[in-house]
């Protein structure tokens, strides 16, 4: 088991290194000139050349990549081209806001999805099961920006219950924080709930076909007891796996949601930085998103190994 976990850790590190190569290469070939984007179209060629020299943009790409990777590993994320401030300072507040959004969405999504998935598995083929299947698939088939705009139309415009945008987050009170997070969190909930509901239902129903479940039924155990006490503990592996993967999406898939609601998080910062060609900020935000997703994927894989007795025995 330890060898399997270590192997996955090595593969995760290798994946993050490959991601760093792709992130640097993609940002390096973005169209447009960074010096022109910073200084404006009226700047002289001499001032643009001087800025490129100061920022190191005239050096070969492989040297810039090696320096960037070495500095990033040491915790030095460089200086923002647009604001001339440390990238770590620019990113830190946005990371906190994105984490708040992801945590609130997870607190809503995980228990609701698991409860609905268990109810659907307890009564397969029932009107509730069919309605839940159709409803969840209908919601997840819509892009996040469509769901977000519908929620704005319903809760912000029609009923005026929540703000349509969250340009700043009021963290001085819990009520203010939750009010600003409500619509973005509900949009993320809609994006992940169907997958978790369907996987929970499928995992529990697969266990419900086992002989020991039939024995429990013959002994007269209630359906609720069978699902909660017998089926759920044996289906925990796939459920934990899908929950961890969707948590990865909640952290790394917030870009569209943050742009729709003007939410001051890491995703909106990345989009704004693309517009100004602020390469250090684009690179570190992309690395944060990708690294978080890789780590949560590794966590899901490890938890699946630990929760599966057959894999533990094989290891």
Give a written overview of the molecule.
With 315 residues, the chain is mainly α. The chain is built from 15 helices and no strands. The chain has two domains: 2-73; 93-314, MetI-like fold. The mean pLDDT is 88.
Short description:
The chain is mainly alpha-helical. It is 78% helix and 0% strand.
The count of DSSP E runs of length 2 or more, i.e. the number of strands, is 0
Characterize the overall form: globular
Low-confidence stretches: none
Q: What is the class of the largest domain in the CATH system?
A: Mainly Alpha
Could you tell me the radius of gyration in angstroms?
24 Å
- Structural class of the helix and strand makeup? mainly alpha
Report the mean per-residue pLDDT as an integer. 88
- What is the CATH superfamily classification of the largest domain? MetI-like
Distance between the termini: 5 Å
Tell me the number of structural domains.
2
Main sheet overview:
none
User: Helical amount among residues, as a percent range?
Assistant: over 70%
CATH fold category name of the largest domain: MetI-like fold
Count helical runs: 15
Give the ordered list of helices and strands.
Answer: HHHHHHHHHHHHHHH
Give the percentage of residues in beta strands.
under 5%
Q: What's the CATH architecture of the largest domain?
A: Orthogonal Bundle
């Amino acid at each position: 088991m330890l060898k399997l976990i270590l192997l996955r850790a090595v593969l995760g590190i290798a994946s993050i290194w490959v991601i760093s190569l792709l992130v640097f290469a993609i940002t390096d070939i973005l169209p447009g000139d960074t010096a022109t984007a910073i200084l404006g179209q009226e700047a002289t060629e001499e001032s643009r050349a001087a800025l490129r020299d100061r920022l190191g943009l005239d050096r070969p790409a492989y040297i810039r990549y090696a320096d960037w990777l070495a500095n990033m590993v040491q915790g030095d994320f460089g200086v923002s081209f647009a604001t001339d401030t440390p990238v770590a300072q620019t990113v830190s507040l946005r990371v906190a806001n994105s984490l708040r959004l992801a945590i609130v969405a997870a607190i809503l999504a995980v228990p609701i999805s698991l409860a609905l998935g268990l109810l659907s598995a307890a009564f397969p083929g029932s009107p509730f099961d069919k309605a839940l299947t159709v409803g969840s698939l209908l919601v997840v088939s819509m892009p996040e920006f469509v769901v977000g705009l519908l929620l704005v139309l319903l809760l912000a415009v029609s009923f005026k219950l929540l703000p349509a945008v969250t340009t700043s987050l009021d963290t001085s009170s819990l009520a203010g924080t939750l009010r600003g997070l409500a619509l973005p969190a509900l949009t993320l909930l809609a994006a992940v709930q169907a997958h978790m509901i369907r996987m929970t239902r499928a995992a529990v129903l697969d266990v419900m076909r086992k002989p020991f479940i039939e024995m429990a039924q013959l002994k007269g155990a209630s359906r609720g007891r069978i699902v909660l006490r017998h089926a759920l503990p044996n289906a925990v592996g796939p459920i934990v796996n899908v929950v961890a993967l969707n948590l990865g999406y909640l952290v790394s898939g917030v870009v569209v949601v943050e742009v729709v609601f003007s939410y001051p998080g890491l995703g909106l910062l990345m989009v704004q930085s693309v517009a100004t060609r602020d390469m250090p900020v684009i690179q570190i935000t992309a690395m944060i998103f990708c690294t978080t997703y890789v780590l949560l994927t590794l966590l899901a894989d490890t938890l699946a190994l630990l929760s599966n007795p057959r894999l533990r025995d094989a290891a």
